[in-house]
């Protein structure tokens, strides 16, 4: 029946970078419904080899690939990476309700089940799924590897040219003139070298790390990373667990080594308010990294003296109220770790991305 036709189509992805299969997904959405919502994930992540393009840049590449008539029927929403499936799904639903003006809109979800990363398609039982099927072997990760793994932009574009829209190639030529490509190439290569070290291991490695969220009054202790991955980005103090330490002992040691923060053990024990494990498979660019994060709240007192050292180029106290404005400067999931303990975002409501 006509009244059962979807009013909106929903296409969800990171679009890092836009390729032909993703464009086909959006166009199928426009065939199925009068309007199509493109929900762009990892919208507020810092630039990295995994997330090289901002939300605004990804919107631009999609709009450039569409015809004028298609552009008029497509709307975009920014989806925060929260590394929590239930909260993420609630965020997507909230974004769709905001776009459509109702939580009762008839929506068709357009996607493709290709591997475990497609399990998110099951998180929207009220939205019938239109599976468009496999559209060739096109993967964003391989396209980014071609882009960052070559010293020659022309060679990189030639390698990916058959898999992306011509407008995306034009966008990349212009984007390459901005001061991002060389830094991302360097970080991609350092990560590739690190991955190569474990290539002969009998099993894929799983790394265990620790992090310390330290609060004094209305301020939190952050570092600026001095090494790749994430060199120059903000993070909470932390590092790899040592063989003969508990996770708590490693967290306290890393805190002292990176920031100089050191109090009596009894003070540390009293200030410890919570500990959580962050184990999302995609939380770290290094690979499978599980971290144990410890939250210390020292209440109202003078800020202890700190100084960046070891792997930290800088250590500083930052007002908690300023953290939302710094979200796009954080390494990996460290904003999410802070949010988990401090309730920075409080709910699934999205902020609007900053304009270009």
From TrEMBL:
Keywords, alphabetical: Nucleotidyltransferase, Transferase
Keyword set includes Transferase: yes
GO MF entries: nucleotidyltransferase activity
Signal sequence, start to end: none
Cross-referenced Gene3D superfamilies: HUPs (3.40.50.620), Nucleoside Triphosphate Pyrophosphohydrolase (3.90.79.10)
Domain called Nudix hydrolase: residue spans: 205-341
InterPro entries: Cyt_trans-like, NUDIX_hydrolase-like_dom_sf, NUDIX_hydrolase_dom, Rossmann-like_a/b/a_fold
Domain of life: Bacteria
Pfam families noted in UniProt: CTP_transf_like (PF01467), NUDIX (PF00293)
Protein name per UniProt: Bifunctional nicotinamide-nucleotide adenylyltransferase/Nudix hydroxylase
Organism: Ramlibacter monticola
Lineage summary: Bacteria, Pseudomonadati, Pseudomonadota, Betaproteobacteria, Burkholderiales
